Amino acid sequence: MPFADNLKLSVKKRSHFSCCLYHALGVEIHHILPQEEGGPDTEDNAAPLCPSCYETYGANPQKRKFIREARDFWYEICAARFASDPDRLDKIVNLVERAATKDDLQAAFEEFAEQVLSRASQGAETRRSEAEILEALEELFDKVWYDRHSLLRDAIENGRTTVDPEIRKGARRAAERVE
């Protein structure tokens, strides 16, 4: 009896849809201990192998332990590959705290107050909808980010600092979107 579809999918996900030996894509799930020899249709007896690895190692009884060990090691790598960094939230908070200075926020507040007064003087409702508030916040963050991006770009162009070229390319594309 072949593996159940949900078990095959589970094994493929754990291996990031890659062969546990050569990490090639396009894997099939194979029995480590063949069914003919009493191998069960369980996840513990399943190995994600590409066609060439199955052809090379699959029928070799001496390689079963190797396949199991390689599979388990590959699972560990896959699990750690996209694991969350426990300090990531602290890093994000730190970045947000540095994103806007007190002066930035004061200027934004004054601009906001001017808009409210302007709307009130035109007879408009002074209460804004959640959508309008979110739009204003997004604009604020875009302006603060763009200002900081401009300062960094100036520092790079004047040789005061350096940035990885890939990060710089991404920042340029983001700046174009904000503009």
Describe the structure.
The termini are far apart. 61% of the residues lie in helices and 4% in strands. The model has no long low-confidence stretch (mean pLDDT 82). It has a two-stranded antiparallel ribbon. The chain has 179 residues and is mostly helical.
Order of adjacent strands in the largest pleated sheet:
1-2
Q: Which of globular, elongated, flat, extended, rod-shaped describes the shape?
A: elongated
SSE-based structural type: mainly alpha
Sheet-strand content, in percent, reads: under 5%
Measured distance between first and last alpha carbons:
60 Å
Largest sheet: 2 strands, antiparallel
The H-and-E topology, N to C, reads as HEEHHHHHH
Poorly predicted parts: none
Number of helices: 7
* DSSP summary, beta strand count: 2
Specify the helix fraction band. Answer: 55-70%
Top keywords for this entry?
179 residues, mainly alpha, 61% helix
